[in-house]
Design brief:
This protein is mostly helical and 105 residues long. It has three helices and two strands.
Length: 105
């Protein structure tokens, strides 16, 4: 499944969403978020918040087969996909290592 935002940032839902959400260990380094990715994250965040508030307001029960819960899970997966597609900010140690490596060669 694919979706696009008003920013033009194309989103592709991972196929694993239809079966089971898999957890992937990611580094905790900050990411360099482009303006386009930031806009997509903002839109997705608002959509997640809206659907979550609507779900709570309607007093829905948390079941995996509930379409609203599935929609929130899909949006959250897309949010993670956008965020983790952004490049990591190199640590200070990485930058120093790169600088020292460049000077020795």
């Amino acid at each position: 499944m694919a979706a696009s935002t008003t920013s033009g940032f194309s989103l592709h839902a991972p196929s694993a969403l239809t079966a089971e959400v898999t957890r992937v260990t990611r580094t905790k380094r900050p990411r360099r978020v482009s303006p386009e990715a930031g806009h997509a994250l903002e839109i997705l965040g608002h959509a997640i918040e809206y659907l979550s508030d609507e779900f709570v307001h309607n007093g829905g029960e948390m079941t995996a087969s509930d379409p609203q819960v599935e929609a929130v899970q899909l949006l959250m997966a897309l949010n993670r996909e956008v965020y983790f597609s952004c490049p990591e900010v190199p640590s200070l140690a990485d930058r120093l290592r790169s600088l020292l490596h460049a000077r020795t060669h």
